[in-house]
Amino acid sequence: MCGDIGTCCYGLFCTPCLYGRNYAEFHDVGCCGACCLYCWCWCLSCCFATDLRRSIRNKYNLAPDPCNDLIVHLFCSPCGLCQESREMRYRREQGTFATVLNQ
Asked: What confidence tens digit (pLDDT) does each residue in 60-69 have?
């Protein structure tokens, strides 16, 4: 059961946009480039979506999933992106969210 229908629908019907939003929020950059990359390079999207998921996991010291991050994005990327979005929102609400600035 999904407690956040808006994010779930956004992830299901506009997966590249949710990836772009997550990337933009995590790195404090615009979302358009990441959204376009996900959309245009969909056959590789599981690779770079996995990288963002791993970065979120490392930043917040989250335990690994029961399955590999690549498997999550390979078979159900919208679900993985929704999880990441909810985790970042939770961290922001708790006051433990900080963006990663590009150097």
From this structure: 888 876 678 8
